[in-house]
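sry for the spam today, last one i promise. struct tokens for design, 425 residues
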């Protein structure tokens, strides 16, 4: 076999037909859950003005500095493929006057995002995100609601050992003083930390706590926790959230190292952890972002949300061997033994499909044996063989593939028989 001229670019993947049952299951769960919580879908453009992400996500973040797919369009405008949803959600909220709607405004989104980063298990340069946002309220009960959506999704998907990692990263009132203490501490350990953290100390100091490099771990472990430097409002908000989590019986751990890589987060940050693929246990992350609207030129608008990568959910489902994903298979296969029978079979199949009966018709001019092999591979429950004899008698034999039996049907009975069998399933 000659070498292929083209393959998918590094860091992207094709979602093949055999993986679709996992995607269908996830999408079905999402639709049911967001409906129960009263969230409505918001579909955003795949690209935005680059300035939206530079101002909203924040200069000094890895996303803006290293990971965005940015280009100049034919009109000379700087455009960026969507690296995350939240900045676009807030832009849409402001642009379309959604502040006039009842609060909170609750939306969800689903679609591709693009980040130029090192591909690894569950992480791609183009991946699909499920995103939930609630705008217009600072109530910690809303934080709890958003976290509950995430937890319920993974719980209903059968994820094991679910728990939250939570932290509060303060607000513009208390965070600046903490950042000064953090920088003072790190300035005493500059010879121990990596070059990226040295840079972050100047551009985005909170991110030093999120470094994964081995040489920085001991410094992070002994860094002053932000929880001891929260203002009264942030302390009360965090305490109330923990009260709600305790009341619901959710397992959680306060993680002083948990921060978000985006500038717009305030107060609550969280991750959902589950038993899954390798050392990375987080299956989603989110939090509160009360400063985002002002960062992109709007009035103050509190918000809270989370995002989860669908590919990562699929890999975790595949890793948990006891989760059974049922693939939708055709109900019936129509084998054709003569060209004269083909018009009749095509008409019957067309009627069945209009009644939502999943069925397959043989194409080409293969032998009956080859057609029956195909029926077995497709996993159908019934086969119908039609040829000259069946046309003359105006009757067919329906073979039960998993049982040693057949039934005879007149041509007029075929549609009702399979519609009923499909409804029984």
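last one done:
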């Amino acid at each position: 076999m000659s070498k292929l001229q083209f393959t998918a670019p590094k860091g992207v993947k094709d979602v093949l037909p055999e993986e679709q049952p996992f995607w269908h299951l996830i999408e079905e769960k999402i639709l049911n859950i967001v409906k129960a919580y009263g969230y409505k879908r918001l579909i955003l453009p795949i690209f935005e003005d680059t300035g939206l992400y530079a101002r909203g996500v924040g200069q000094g973040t890895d996303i803006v500095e290293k990971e965005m797919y940015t280009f100049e369009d034919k009109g000379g405008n700087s455009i960026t493929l969507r690296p995350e949803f939240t900045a676009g959600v807030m832009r849409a909220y402001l642009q379309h006057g959604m502040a006039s709607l009842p609060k909170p405004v609750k939306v969800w989104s689903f679609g591709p995002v693009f980040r130029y980063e090192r591909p690894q298990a569950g992480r791609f340069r183009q991946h699909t995100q499920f995103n939930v946002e609630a705008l217009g309220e600072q109530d910690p009960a809303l934080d709890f609601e958003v976290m509950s959506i995430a937890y319920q999704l993974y719980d209903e998907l059968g994820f094991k050992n679910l728990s939250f990692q939570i932290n509060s990263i303060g607000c513009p009132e208390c965070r600046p003083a903490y950042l000064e203490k953090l920088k003072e501490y790190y300035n005493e350990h500059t010879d121990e930390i990596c070059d990226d953290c040295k840079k972050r100390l100047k551009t985005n100091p909170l991110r030093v706590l999120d470094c994964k490099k081995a040489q920085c771990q001991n410094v992070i472990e002994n860094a002053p926790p932000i929880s001891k430097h929260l203002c009264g409002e942030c302390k009360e908000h965090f305490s109330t959230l923990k009260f709600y989590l305790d009341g619901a019986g959710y397992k959680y751990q306060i993680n002083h190292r948990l921060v978000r890589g985006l500038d717009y987060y305030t107060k609550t940050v969280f991750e959902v952890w589950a038993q899954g693929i390798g050392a990375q246990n987080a299956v989603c992350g989110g939090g509160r972002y009360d400063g985002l609207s002002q960062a992109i030129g709007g009035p103050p608008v509190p918000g809270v949300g989370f995002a989860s990568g669908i590919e990562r959910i699929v890999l975790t489902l595949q890793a948990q061997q006891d989760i059974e994903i049922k693939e939708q298979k055709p109900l019936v296969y129509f084998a054709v033994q003569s060209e004269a029978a083909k018009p009749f079979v095509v008409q019957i199949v067309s009627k069945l499909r209009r009644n939502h009966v999943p069925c397959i018709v043989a194409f080409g001019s293969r032998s009956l044996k080859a057609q029956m092999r195909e029926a077995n591979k497709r996993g159908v429950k019934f086969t119908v063989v039609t040829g000259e004899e069946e046309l003359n008698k105006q009757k067919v034999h329906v073979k039960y593939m998993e049982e040693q039996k057949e039934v005879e049907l007149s041509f007029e009975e075929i549609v009702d028989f399979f519609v009923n069998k499909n409804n029984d399933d």
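The first helix runs from residue 20 to 37. ok im logging off now
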